[in-house]
Each structure stands twice: as C-alpha cells, then as structure tokens.
Specification:
Layout (H helix, E strand, L loop, with lengths): L8 E4 L5 H12 L3 E6 L3 H13 L4 E5 L23 E4 L14 H28 L5 E4 L12 H11 L6 H7 L3
Parallel strand pairs: 1-2, 1-4, 2-3, 4-5
Helix pairs in contact: 1-2, 3-4, 3-5
C-alpha cells in the first residue's frame, strides 16, 4: 500500500511501546520520517528508531512529557532533523487502575494532563505550524477500548480526549475559519 508518505515527517507521541511503536513502524514503512516521542523508556524508543533505520527508514527519538507545558512533546522540542511536522499522532496516554471513588487526586491530575491536555496542546501547537504552511498536515488522535468500558476512572477522560481533538478540528479547517 502506498500512502504517499515519502519525505513526510510524523511525530508519534508515546511512540516507544505498544500501539505507538506499531504506528511509528508503519509510518516509517510507508516512507515517513518519524519522530518517536517517549516519556521515560529511552531504551524502548531507541529500539524503535534502530528498527526503522535497519529497515532503511529515517527516525529520531526524543524525550518529552505531555503532562506539563514544560518539556512537552509538541514539535518544538523535536530534533530539527525531523521538522516541520506533517503528521501528528496523539497516542500518548496514562492509566489509573483505581476506581473513580478511590483515585488519588494527584494521580487523576496526571491522567488529565497527559490524556486530555497533552492531546489538546500538541494538536494546537503542531496545528499552528501546519496552518502557517497553508493548512497542510494531518492530526490523528488515538483512543482506547477503555474509553468505552467504564471500569477505571481514566475511562471517562480517555474517551473525551479524542472528542476534544477530533478530526473536524483539522489544520485545514482552522485555516478556513481563520482561527488558529
């Protein structure tokens, strides 16, 4: 399948493991240069980059948290070699195993900052750069089955994040409406 991603640059938040790893590898296989964002697992991120490079692709890993506006993985902290960003994949997410009645507020705050605000901030910041370049680019937000199964307190939030960062809020729409 040719998705016409040759020479496109993709930023995958939470790209070091699981779904993010798979997305990063698939984008690279289609020809995209991939910026692999990770929060703490540098070895896993390095392995994704190594795998992409061994397959003839181009990738770089960089650390950044989405739970804070400092050190965020918004594209400005991405290595210069992988900018400007054409594709943003909001994949990073954290989970709490506590019920909504028992989750400590500090833990809930971390979930909200990562899953909701992280998606919002990355979409807005990368989206602004996309608008400046004429509205070219794609933003994809990944959700989880836990957004449909209310077993954990984070389910509510993980379900809401993709709604907040929906496809209707794409850079091409922002350009048309004049809002950035």
């Amino acid at each position: 399948m040719d998705l016409r991603l040759a020479e496109k640059v993709a930023l995958v938040t939470g790209g070091a493991r699981r779904i993010g790893r798979g997305i990063a590898l698939a984008l690279a296989k289609e020809g995209a240069k991939v910026a692999v964002n990770y929060r703490e697992r540098s070895e896993a991120a390095a392995d994704v980059v190594r795998t992409i490079r061994e397959d003839g692709g181009d990738a770089a890993a960089f650390q950044g948290t989405l739970a804070s506006t400092r050190g965020r993985a918004d594209g400005r902290s991405a290595p210069r070699a992988v900018r400007p960003i054409d594709i943003l994949v909001n994949n990073a997410g954290v989970v709490t195993r506590h019920s909504i009645l028992d989750v400590p507020l500090a833990e809930w705050d971390r979930v909200v900052r990562t899953n909701l605000y992280g998606c919002f901030h990355c979409s807005r910041l990368v989206g602004r750069h996309m608008v400046e370049r004429g509205g070219e680019g794609k933003i994809v937000s990944i959700s989880s089955i836990h957004g449909r199964v209310a077993k954990a307190a984070w389910a509510v939030l993980r379900h809401k994040a993709p709604s907040t960062c929906s496809a209707s809020s794409s850079p091409s729409n922002w350009r048309r409406t004049g809002s950035t």
